[in-house]
Amino acid sequence: GENVEQHPSTLSVQEGDSAVIKCTYSDSASNYFPWYKQELGKRPQLIIDIRSNVGEKKDQRIAVTLNKTAKHFSLHITETQPEDSAVYFCAPDAMDSSYKLIFGSGTRLLVRP
Amino acid sequence: GAVVSQHPSWVICKSGTSVKIECRSLDFQATTMFWYRQFPKQSLMLMATSNEGSKATYEQGVEKDKFLINHASLTLSTLTVTSAHPEDSSFYICSALDSSSYNSPLHFGNGTRLTVT
């Protein structure tokens, strides 16, 4: 089955700085690579996703990069704001286009004002 | 945008009783839905894949006789926690796949917080 590792587990940055979270996965058949943001007691919210035929995708302050050869993808948040504070999960799908997401262990991001 | 309704949002039940959680896609048909469980300060763990009209596929270590899944229509999947015990207390979340949408086809419900006393 798919093994997913996410690093770091916690990340504290100063407001305005950048944050990078990395996710490694094991299944070479994975084709869909989303990142979710979850606030306490709420459902995970999709913030950005990428597919295996694309190497990078950007949406305003958020970007995702994918290295399919090395089996890892990363979340980049620039100009961080206090409202970015939350837990972030990577969740690659377990097999080609199954959308059966296997969640990483999560990264608790704290943006200090 | 696509909406998934999950009900109830929270429930408290006594040990030994059963609890049913509903996951409903409101404006799209979902042939596939997924059920997750999340303990405090932990990640979402996939419990099972629910397919309309067929038996659910359970992940390793998840008891299919304890967590009954029924996906009887294209818009509704239910998870029944049978003979609940305090260790079943958790946050249960469903997601529904909108296969007609290529961009961001997965939609999560708001979750159900189950407390077993």
3D structure, described in words:
The complex is a heterodimer of chains A (113) and B (117). With 113 residues, chain A is an all-beta fold. Chain A is 0% helix and 50% strand. Chain A contains no helices and 10 strands. Chain A has strands spanning 4-7, 10-14, 19-25, 32-38, 45-51, 56-59, 62-67, 72-77, 86-90, 107-112. In chain A, the strands form 2 sheets. Chain A has a 5-stranded antiparallel beta sheet, with no helix packed on it. In chain A, β7 and β8 (72-77) form a beta hairpin. Chain A is globular. Chain A starts with a strand and ends with a strand. Chain B has 117 residues and is mainly β. Chain B contains no helices and 11 strands. In chain B, strands 2, 4, 5, 6, 9, 10 and 11 form a 7-stranded mixed beta sheet that branches. Chain B is globular, with a radius of gyration of 14 Å. The model of chain B has no long low-confidence stretch (mean pLDDT 94). Chains A and B meet through β5 of A and β4, β5 and β9 of B.
Got a strand count of chain A?
Answer: 10
Stretches with pLDDT under 50, minimum 5 residues of chain B: none
Global mean pLDDT of chain A? 95
Distance between the termini of chain A: 41 Å
State the assembly state of the protein chains. heterodimer
